[in-house]
Amino acid sequence: MKRRDALKNSAAVLGLLLAAGVLPQAAHAAYNKAAFDAKTMAEVMKAMGASAPVESKDVTLTAPDIAENGAVVPIGASTTLPNVKQLLILVEKNPNTMVAAFTVNDALEPNFLTRSKLGQSSDVYAVAITNDGKAFFAKKEVKVTLGGCGG
Questions:
Q1: Which of 60, 131, 136, 146 would bridge 56 by S-S if both were Cys, CB 3.0 to 4.6 A apart?
Q2: 43: three-class secondary structure by DSSP
């Protein structure tokens, strides 16, 4: 099963559990289908209700310069900005731009690490969205030697 198919199936199961009243409404609110289906960074920002992002030294992106296997690329995102509500990881040339979205509150340190597929060499972004809808990013180009999407 492909990762995207698993995510879609998971969303369907969550929908059924929510409709059955097994899950609280807040669990469903965390998934933003329009943002995960977006094909460009601008579409992601619009779906997230954020302004166009500006580069910031307060947002940090950790990723390898060269990924030997695009199927499992470690990517980290963190920020020192105050009042951050979400931290996103975006891959510009993936079929769906948004790879991960982390909801942040005062009890959480905005510092996350995940793994992603990169089908080809691409710019990778860490985007921090503040409570007032402003977006800030850090960017890094990651070169892929072996594609992650069937390569």
A1: 136
A2: helix
Residue 121 sits in the same domain as residue 103:
yes
Single-letter code of the amino acid located at 92: E
What's phi and psi for 36, nearest 5 deg? Answer: -70, -25
CB proximity list for 132: less than 8 A, separation 6 or greater: 83
Nearest CA-CA partner of 81 in 104, 115, 98: 104
Residue 27 inside a domain? The answer is yes
Q: Kindly report the three-state secondary structure assignment for every residue of 2-25.
A: CHHHHHHHHHHHHHHHHHCCCCCH
pLDDT tens digits, one per residue of 76-134: 999 999 999 999 999 999 999 999 999 888 888 899 999 999 989 999 999 999 999 99
Phi and psi torsions of 17, nearest 5°: -65, -35
Q: What pTM does this model have? A: 0.77
Domain-located, residue 117: yes
The CA-based diameter of the chain, rounded to the nearest angstrom, is 46
Domain count for the chain, please give it: 2
E strand or H helix at 130: strand 122-130
Whether 151 maps to a domain, the answer reads no
